[in-house]
Amino acid sequence: MPGSANSLWNSASQPMTPRDQRLALLLDDLWRTHFADIPRPNEVVVGFGFPWKWRLGRIRMSLDGRTSEITLNGLLDRPEVPRGIYVAIMAHEIVHYAQGFASPLPRAQRHAHAHGAVSHELAHRGLGATEHLLMEWGERGWPHLRAQALAERQPHRQRPVVLAPCAARANVL
Question: Domain 8-151 class?
Answer without folding.
Answer: alpha beta
